[in-house]
Design goal:
Blueprint lengths: L2 E4 L7 H10 L6 E3 L13 H13 L6 E3 L11 H18 L6 E4 L9 H15 L7 E5 L12 H10 L6 E6 H7 L7 H11 L5 E6 L1 E2 L10 E2 L8 H9 L7 E4 L5 H13 L5
Parallel strand pairs: 1-10, 2-3, 3-4, 4-5, 5-6, 6-7, 7-10
Antiparallel strand pairs: 8-9
Helix pairs in contact: 1-2, 4-5
């Protein structure tokens, strides 16, 4: 089964997101745990969550991929931002246990001149202070495009973070097709080679989710500019190959393309019509 969805607004709660996803033909989705540019999260409604969990079971939903706000930077050069980010991470881990067994995706962060080694140390320290053996949420490091001082555009950087995290069984990786392409990984002409490299450096067992996006830019641009499927430099056929790849096809695929509901519905339909069931 193809598990595919898109990024949905979370302001109206879990049940509204679930119904929205179903209306688009989706059976998973991503959402920000709070305002993507801000701090405090809204209070959760347990009745709303329970109703959503029933809807998700009825529609055979795959893993949800919650997304940390863009303001979370665990390796900022500013200590107050790091503290704010650590508190946000801890709060999100608590909240997500109300929808157990899903994923929490975050951008590793930007070291802002401190250097990659220092930034990686700070990211790992924050995870080690937060992750608990009893949690059911798997935390995903997102591979990045490599703009500015971003950490995580190279598989080696993601691997080094994992090496420093104590509860590795609570960790995973989310790869974004636009980010991969713009980071210099040729998923158009050498998808197998890219996955072999990922497996050699990180381990394919850590790959838990895919952000499925086209790119406005050529390979290696390091700019992170998403495009609608088929309108960018990656193209439709390579993305179809990704959803059908034996090592990927059971993962949740999240569209983060610049679209409205009609556009997302069309992209979900396009991918479903080109997916080969086992």
């Amino acid at each position: 089964m193809l598990y595919i969805g898109c990024h949905l607004p979370s302001s109206k709660g879990y049940l509204a997101m679930g119904r929205h996803a179903v209306s688009l033909g989706a059976n998973t989705f991503a959402f920000f745990t709070r305002n993507p540019r801000g701090g405090n999260a809204k209070q959760l409604n347990k009745a709303d969550i329970n109703a959503f969990l029933q809807l998700a079971e009825n529609h055979n939903f795959g893993k949800l991929v919650a997304h940390a706000p863009y303001t979370m930077n665990l390796c900022s050069a500013n200590e107050s931002i790091r503290e704010f980010s650590r508190n946000m991470l801890a709060d999100d881990m608590t909240r997500l246990e109300l929808t157990p067994g899903n994923y929490y995706n975050f951008h590793p962060g930007s070291h802002v001149g401190q250097g990659i080694d220092k930034g990686i140390e700070q990211i790992a320290d924050a995870l080690n202070a937060t992750l608990k053996p009893t949690q059911t949420t798997t935390v995903l490091l997102e591979g990045m495009a490599g703009k500015g001082s971003e950490i995580g555009s190279k598989f080696e950087e993601l691997r080094t973070i994992l090496d420093k995290v104590e509860l590795k069984e609570k960790m995973g990786i989310c790869l974004d097709t636009c980010h991969l392409w713009e980071a210099g990984y040729n998923i158009v002409n050498d998808l197998n080679g890219v996955l072999e490299e990922f497996d050699r450096i990180i381990g394919i067992n850590y790959l838990k989710a895919i952000h499925l996006n086209d790119s406005k830019n050529l390979i290696g641009a390091h700019k992170d500019r998403h495009e609608r499927i088929g309108f960018g430099k990656i193209g439709t056929d390579p993305l179809i190959r990704i959803i059908n790849h034996p090592q990927l096809k059971k993962l949740p695929f999240i569209l983060e393309t610049p679209n409205d509901d009609e556009g997302y519905s069309n992209e979900i339909s396009l991918m479903r019509s080109n997916y080969t069931e086992w």
